[in-house]
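User: I'm writing a short methods note and want a consistent example. For Branched-chain amino acid ABC transporter permease, I'll paste the sequence; you return only the structure tokens, no commentary, since I'll be parsing the reply automatically.
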Amino acid sequence: MSGQHDSGALRQAQRDVKPALGARPANGAAALLTHPLLWTAILFVALPFVAGANPFKGNWSGFVGIATTMVIFALFASGFNLLFGHVGELSFGHAMFFTLGAYTTALYTAGFNVTVFGTAVSHGKGDNLFVALVLSLAVALLWAWVLARVVVPRSSGIYFSMITLAFAQVIYFVTFHWSELTGGEDGLQNITRPSVFGNAWLSSSDHFYWFCAICAFLALCLLHFILRSPFGSVLHAIRENKQRARFLGYDVDKYRVNAFVLSALFPAVAGWLWTYFQQAINPDAGSVEYSGNVVMMSMLGGVQTFLGPILGASIYYEIQNNVSQLTKYWEAWIGIVFVIVVLVGPRGIMGFLDDIRHYGAGTTFRRYFSRQARVELEMQEELPALDEPAATETAAP
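Assistant:
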């Protein structure tokens, strides 16, 4: 953050965040029990025992494969939500970072031999797990930085969404048609999971789930730190009122570029894990469907919350697993659930629970299920509180 901003300006930016979006101040044991990372850890530990349980068939046992998918896409959705939920920019092309991470991992592990502008370029098989991660992050970082410098300062809103979708289609086109490198429509198959310090520990599905859970949890800890830092507070201020943040002296475009680049790294890590989980990769990973699914997961769980995308990804794949066993039209049922959630509670499931904690159950239910009550409560929130000083007069950048 630039040194020209004084603490008063930062406090003003932090006040721009709506009270309902943050948690009610808590201390001691209450703060620990409501900490989102604690609930993330509990969910990740519980998933292999409950994910995929089907109450319609009396099957309550979990499935490690479904739990692994949930964890990987929880990380993907959380990275996307850094840009969508915390900056207010909707990207329809974040699947390109997922597929860049996945293909980089696959090409490093399986090796390649191609001709580029008449020059033979080749690489043998790689077996280092962490080198694959670094390469995946580097490729996603480079592409995100170039894209952000071109797109972010010149567009916002629906134009930003459409441009990111267009660039994602470019990546999809390359992976689909450059068959010499990517395997074309069939993709790259038979990718082996590297050993860890000479031990084939990751070949077990159970062990690989815990490896994914630990990697995802560490990445989410970093994301939580980013969102709780002064940098994250400025992002919230930009989302609430971009013009006010600019008036306070913040370089809004610079913060948006940085947020875009950071949000690209988490899908890249998810792609790295996804390649080793599937032991194969194909162009579908970069399709519009993947970008749309991650938007649905975030809105279902609740944007503008930390746990929302994690919960949304888990619910999405739980519905998919159960409903697909009853009917082949499972996507229609997910669509119905999504429509109900958006119409009744546009802040998603976590937003609904957050409102109950903030306002109480009675007020929250009236707000969600009575249009008249919702309008009256919103009018009350917009009126200045009589026992608070005029906060805007204290802001002096």
